[in-house]
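Problem 12. The chain below contains 151 residues. Write out its predicted structure in token notation.
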Amino acid sequence: MKLHDLRPNPGAKKERKRVGRGIAAGQGKTAGRGTKGQGARSGEGGHLYRQGGNLPFFRRLPFMRGVGFTPIHRIEYNEVNLDQLAKAFPPHAEITPETLLQARLLRDEKNPVVILGRGEVSVPYKVRVHRISRAARAKIEAAGGSVELIS
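Solution.
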């Protein structure tokens, strides 16, 4: 058997209907399109997203992608500033997401925690969080504290 001998199984392929080829073919004149109207015209049905005056489907969806919209894979952090730590924790306290949750400083306990540098720290803290700004790390370490990142 050679490549030129290969054929599809009998009945596996069907000839396409050739419409508009005369009255004898059975699909002449209007060629199965009926008479007049949008469906009888060439290129009928409008373009792909047209919905006859309704707001097109892709415009009804919420904005998920594109310039100027919220990225869908963005990580949202619980932001805690140094001045909040100073009010909520005594000196030498260990600060973790759990202790921040008990102190009611977190908006959503499922989100990771970031410490930001607003405010001053005068007492040492042992901080274990997911992320910390450079300014906050410098202030905590200058006060004698330590910083450890959670992966």
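Discussion. The longest helix spans residues 134-142. Students who got a different answer should revisit the alignment rule from Section 12.3.
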